[in-house]
Design goal:
Blueprint lengths: L1 E10 L3 H10 L4 E6 L18 E9 L4 H12 L6 E7 L3 H8 L3 E3 L3 E5 L10 E5 L11 H12 L6 E5 L5 H8 L4 E5 L3 H14 L3 E4 L9 E7 L2 H6 L1 H6 L1 E13 L3 H8 L3 E3 L3 E3 L2 E8 L2
Parallel strand pairs: 6-7, 8-9, 8-11, 9-10, 11-12
Antiparallel strand pairs: 1-3, 1-4, 2-3, 5-6, 12-15, 13-15, 14-15
Bound molecules: S-adenosylmethionine.
S-adenosylmethionine binds next to helix 4, strand 8 and helix 5.
């Protein structure tokens, strides 16, 4: 599939306004990039990057009309839009990019993640075969690696698990392979749900996959959530409700300097253990009070 991409460079104080305008005119995703080519961030609602010169990039269905979208954007913003770069992008084949760059990877003692068709050197390994498709989650990102190592060190044998923000489904599949009995994977991104369904089917894991709105009031023994700090803070009440008293919540996607704010949002229900660090990221582990 091809995408219509519209990119615009704005000053930092206009990022939120322009991002919202893109969402209003139907962007499928809005991404913010430092115009000096710093790493990409997809800021959560209310979170504005402070770069002075910022590129806001929106993706639309290829069938949309770029010139018409420019006019709509101008109408929403009510001021002239600076120079827009409109181009058509082919889908990147993330699975092959990943396969070409990385091989089998080990997390902790027993857990390995391998591209489909590859095997780890350790015959006793617990293997998660992944094809991430267009979704996030190959194990190469520090936050995914933190969760995989945590799961290897705390195998959820016989426990019920929700993978909240499942991306490719890598954590849900790993939890299932490590002995979890009832595993649910949820995500707000349809491509993530599709990738997770395919990965769970291919790996033979019996995992329920749906949008978080379809998640009933049920509570599980372990919620594992690799999303950003702001959505974690905003979802504190909901996520806490999904953990049994005595159960655990494991959260990452959190920069070290954001850890205190996330823990503060959950302390009404959870007591936190020591933080795990990897690169600039942390993993929080909370035990729900009885
Ligand atoms: C960083 S990826 C994590 C993917 C995978 N779990 C992993 O650890 O590699 C975050 C995922 O969370 C999803 N997400 C973001 N905000 C969410 C929310 N409020 N509720 C559910 N999913 C969300 C995104 O669509 C994305 O697939």
């Amino acid at each position: 599939m091809t995408w219509l991409q519209i990119a615009v460079e704005v000053s930092g104080d206009r990022v939120e306004e322009v991002s919202e305008a893109f969402n209003t005119i139907g962007a499928l995703s809005v991404t913010v990039l430092d115009a000096g080519d710093e790493p990409l961030l997809e800021p959560a609602p209310g979170e504005t990057p402070l770069w002075s010169n910022t590129r806001v990039i929106a993706l639309f269905d290829e069938a949309q009309d770029g010139v018409g979208l420019k006019k709509q954007l101008q109408d929403v913003l009510e001021v002239p839009v600076p120079d827009l770069l409109i181009e058509y992008l082919p889908d990147r084949d993330w699975s092959n990019t990943w396969r070409d760059t990385f091989g089998a990877m080990q997390f902790g003692k027993r857990l390995w993640v391998c591209p489909v068709g590859e095997s780890p050197p350790d015959p006793a390994a617990i293997v998660v075969h992944m094809d991430p498709g267009m979704a996030f989650g190959t194990g190469t990102h520090a936050t995914t690696a933190l969760c995989l190592e945590w799961l290897d060190a705390h195998p959820p044998v016989g426990r019920s698990v929700i993978d909240y923000g499942c991306g490719s489904g890598i954590l849900a599949v790993a939890a299932h392979k490590l002995g979890a009995t009832d595993v649910i994977a949820v995500d707000i991104d349809p491509q993530a749900l599709q990738a997770t369904r395919e990965n769970t089917r291919r790996t033979g894991c019996d995992i329920e996959v749906f949008h978080p709105e379809a998640l009933a009031q049920e509570a599980v023994d372990l919620v594992i959530a690799n999303i950003l700090a702001n959505p974690l803070i905003e979802s504190a009440k909901d996520l806490s409700r999904h953990v049994h008293a005595g159960g655990q919540i494991v959260m990452t996607g959190i920069l070290a300097e954001q850890a205190e704010a996330v823990m503060a949002a959950y302390r009404g229900w959870f007591v936190f253990g020591p933080l795990l660090h990897r690169e600039e990221w942390v993993l929080l582990e909370g035990l729900k009070q009885l």
